[in-house]
């Protein structure tokens, strides 16, 4: 039997644009940082991406600050 997602299934975080705590969709994506084609395959980094469900504002943070 399938279940419907509840508010408990979503992340609540502060949203700078809304100015309050709102539900966010959070995922990790790999982004290429180098604009040079030769180095692009070596410049991929993981980013945490959070999107506000109220206003659609997207915040991203590099997860690997070595």
UniProtKB/TrEMBL annotation:
Pfam family, one: DUF7835
Top-level taxon of origin: Archaea
Domain called DUF7835: residue spans: 1-66
Protein name (database record): DUF7835 domain-containing protein
Native source species: Salinirubrum litoreum
